[in-house]
Design goal:
single chain; 252 residues; alpha/beta; seven-stranded mixed sheet; 11 helices; 25% strand
């Protein structure tokens, strides 16, 4: 991953990407056994959208993030929390001690990793019987608005076909990361509503779209405004997401 892809997008990413639902954390605790005594490494922790929930559950969370701007935002939001430790590192080289981590979590970042090198690094830092939990949202493309939005980002994206999550998941099954161990799976449908300001912020947070001094390309913003006027109901548009969780121990 190019660590500069999200420069200037930090606030929009933090404010306008969907939140993680409470059902997810019930699943992590009740079904996967996440507990207070666990040491968790949240890899690709970004602005701390997922990390901020982990620190309410476990005693120590290492937020490992290579992007300075995103890491500083997480530190601003979570730096006073005694359970949070900020680490300048990446999936392939976390900088964490060997055999020091009970659970590795990855929320909305796995598709940026060199998965083979990251797997080796996770095996190094995990304690025996340690668990990896991969989590991500995949935006659905089924309603008229969602289909039109997909056309918009495809037309204006610099390299959307290369980096979009739909294509990544089709080309590489997450189960292969755990092989030969079988991964446990969980799926949840989530809805996210945004007004026009939020939709424009959601677009600005996308690494594959051009921005000009923090704002959208003028042609893109004009097209986005037209899209919103066409599909908004009661002042908001509705995004659908499928939330996926893959978990297990890492095979050799």
């Amino acid at each position: 991953m190019n660590d500069d892809r999200f420069l200037g997008r930090t606030r929009d990413y933090s404010d306008y990407r969907p939140e993680y639902p409470k059902e997810l954390f019930h699943y992590l605790v009740d079904e996967l056994g996440l507990k207070a005594s666990d040491a968790v490494a949240d890899i690709g922790s970004g602005t701390g959208k997922f990390t901020r929930h982990l620190v309410e559950i476990v005693n120590v969370v290492y937020g490992v993030e290579p992007n300075d701007e995103m890491r500083m935002e997480a530190e601003k939001r979570l730096g006073t929390h005694s359970h949070f430790k900020s680490v300048a590192g990446k999936a392939e080289a976390t900088g964490l001690p060997p055999r020091s981590i009970d659970v590795v979590t990855v929320a909305q970042a796995f598709h940026w990793f060199d998965s083979d090198t990251a797997k080796t690094e996770f095996q190094r830092i995990l304690k025996p019987k340690g668990t990896v939990i991969l989590i991500w949202y995949d935006r659905t493309v089924s309603t008229p608005f969602e289909k039109a939005y997909e056309v918009l980002v495809t037309n204006f994206g610099m390299d959307y076909g290369k980096v979009n999550l739909h294509g990544y998941l089709r080309s590489r099954s997450p189960e292969s990361f755990f092989a030969p161990t079988l991964a446990r799976t969980f799926e949840l449908a989530v809805t996210h509503w945004l007004d026009l300001h939020g939709m424009l912020g959601r677009l600005r947070s996308s690494s594959f779209l051009r921005t000009d001094h923090g704002g959208l390309d003028q042609k893109l913003e004009t097209a986005a405004n037209s899209l919103f006027r066409r599909y908004a109901k009661k002042g908001v548009v509705q995004y659908g997401y499928n939330l996926f969780v893959y978990s297990g121990e890492l095979g050799d």
